[in-house]
Amino acid sequence: xxxxLRALGDPVRLALVRRMADGGESVCxxxxxxxxxxxxxxxxxxxxxxxxxxxxxxGKARLMSLRRADLDARFPGLLxxxxxxxxx
Length: 88
What we know:
Layout: H1 2-8, H2 11-23, E1 26-27, H3 37-49, E2 53-58, E3 61-66, H4 68-74, H5 78-87
């Protein structure tokens, strides 16, 4: 659980998770985030290695999505609590 909490503890990664929670898949370099690509790659890696996201290849694009069912099975209520706390 510590790895997942550490991954969700960063504001940029939390913004990426919120984007996926609200809209499904996300491209690897969203236009509205002012973060260098190399930094984004690191954030995506941390989320993937923590088991929070999965990546799907679509041609040249990579699309990330939440592993919501897996997260809810491993840590019931964690994702909902983190997303709810962030909205306050």
